[in-house]
Amino acid sequence: MSVEKRKINVDKRKKFVNHLAVFKPRTKKDDNNELSERIIITARKTGELNLSSRGLATVPKRVWTLNDLTKEEIEELHMNLDFDDDRDRWWEQELLKTLNLCSNSITTIDPEIQNLSDLIDLDFHDNLIEELPDALKTLSKLRKLNLSHNNLNKINTNLFTLENLRHLNLSHNNIQELDPSIGDLVMLETLNLSYNNIAKLPVGLGYLVRLCKLDLSHNLLIELPPDIMSMRVLKKFDASSNHLEVTPPLGEMRKLEILNLQDNHLSVFPDVIGCTALREIYLSNNQITELKMECLEGIGQLKSLVMSNNKIETIPDDIITLLNLERLDLSFNKLTFVSNSLCVMPNLKHLIIDGNKIKNVRRDIIQCGTPRILRHLRQGFDSESIELNRSSSPCPAMIPGPDKYMMKHTKLLSLAAQNLDQIPDIVLEDASEAKVTCVDLSRNRLTQLPDKLNLIKSIEDLKLFCNQLTSLPEWIGELCCRLRYLDLSKNQLTNLPESIGKLELLREINISHNKFTVVPECIYKISHLEILIIHDNRVKEIDASSFAKLKRLAKLDLSNNDIGHIPPELGNQTNIRALLLSGNCFKQPRQAILVKGTDDILSYLRNQIPL
C-alpha cells in the first residue's frame, strides 16, 4: 500500500473514532484539529471550505485567518521560490468565498468572522446557534445565508444591512418577531421564514420587491400585511399551516405561479383576481364554503386546484372554463352532486372527490379513480345541453369587445393585436369605472394616445409596444401617478415628455426599438426606477453622473446603440446587477470583458478611473 493511501486510511479511522467517542467531552483542540493542512490547501485553491458534519462545538480558529500564511508557511514559501520545479504551488490561493459549517453543534459565531469579508455563501444550518454577532454586518459581499435549524429567538438588525444578500433562510428556529428593517434587504430574491413562532409580520416586508420565493409556512400568523401586494415578481408564495382567517387581495402579484394557503382558518376563497400566471393553488384544510369562479376568471393557466377538507357544497358549472386544469381535489367536503359536464374538461387527469356524500356517482366508481369517474359522467352527459363558455379562448373573433364585468374582476383592459388606430371612448370609460390596473394596447396602429386614457387613474401597468407612436402627451406623467410598469418599445419615439419624471412609483420602463439619440433627461428623475431598457436605439453617449442619481437601478440595457465611449465612472454604479452594452461602437471594454458579465464590466470600469 502506498504511503499516501495509508495516510488517507488513517485519517478516515481517526475521524471515525472521533465520532464514536460520544462520552468524551469535545474540546477546542479537537475542533481545531479537524482543520488539517490538506483541507486548508484545498480551500485556498478553490475558495471553498466545507466543514459540515464534523461534530464541531466551535469553529476552528484557523478558519478566520485561512488566507493568512503562518510563519512556517512564509519560510517554506521563500525556499520553494528559490527552486523551479513541478511541485504543487500551494501558496497560490483564492480568497474564501464559500464557507459550509452545517450539521455541527456550534453554539456561537465568533466575531472574527469579520475577517472573511469576501464571503459570498455562508451556511450555518443545523447547529445550536442562539444569537448572531454584530460582525455579520461586515460581510458586505454576502449573497446567500443559511441559518435554518438553529435556536435563534430573534434576529440582530445588523443582518438587515447586508444589501447584496439574495437568499436568506431562517427556517426552523424560534423567531417570534421581525424588525421592519428587514425591508432594507432590497436585493433579496428568496426568503424562508417557515417553522418559527412569528405571529405578526412587519409592514416593511413589502419593500422586498425583488422576492421570487417567500415561505411563511408553519408560523402563528393571523393576518398578512397589506403591502405584501407590492411583491410584483413573486412566483411562489407559501403561507400554509398558520392561523390566517382572511387574506388581502393578491391580484397585484401578476407573476405568481404557486399559492399555498392550506392548513389555515380561511372561510372564503382568496382574492386572486389578476394573478393570471397562477398554475397551482393549494387551499386544503380550511373552512371555505364556496368555490367562487369569479375569483378564477382570467386565470387560464391554472393546472392544479387542491381544496380538500373544506365545507364546499357544490361544484360551479363554470369550472369547465378552466381548460388547462389537470388536477382537481375536492375530497372530504360536503358535495352531494357532481355535474356531468366535468367530463368535457380536456386536460383533467386527476379528479379526487372521495370523502363526500355524492348521490349521482357510486362509491365503488369513485374508488376506481379518475378514468372511471369521467367515463361514468360521460355516459350521462348531453353535449347539446351545455354551452361551454369560451371566454378564455385565444380566438379573438369570438369576443366582440372588452367585457365590463370581466374588466372589473380581472382589473385588465386588453385590446392587444386588434389592428386598431383608435380606441372607442366607451371602452376607456368602462375601464375607468372598473378601475383596471393593467392596460394593454400593444400591437396596434396607434399614432397617438387617446385623451380618454387619462380617465383611468388606477393604471399601474401600461403596455404600448408595437404601435406607431411618435410622441406622448404631457398628461401621462401627471395623471398616471400610480404607474409602475411602462412599455413603449417598438414605436417611433425620439423624446419623452418631462412629466415622465414625476412618476415616482415607476419601476420599469422599456423604450427599446425607437429613435432616441440620447437618454431622455426626465428618466434620471424617476427615483424608484429599477429596470431601464433602451437597446436598439441611436444613443451616442452615456452620462455617468446622471445615471448615479438612479440609486435603485438594477438593470440597464444599452445594447445595440451608437455609443462610442463608456465612462469609467459608470463602474461606481454597484447597484446595477445586469449591465448590457454589446452591439455598440466603443473599443473599451473589449468583448472579452463584456461576455464575463456585469460584475467584471463594472470592476474593469472602476479600474480605469484616474487616481
From TrEMBL:
GO terms for cellular component: cytoplasm. The keyword Acyltransferase does not apply. Residues 157-262, 481-582 form the Disease resistance R13L4/SHOC-2-like LRR domain. It comes from Cotesia glomerata (Lepidopteran parasitic wasp). Signal peptide: none annotated. PANTHER family: PTHR48051, RAS SUPPRESSOR PROTEIN 1 (PTHR48051:SF1). Keywords: Leucine-rich repeat, Repeat. PROSITE patterns: LRR. This is Disease resistance R13L4/SHOC-2-like LRR domain-containing protein.
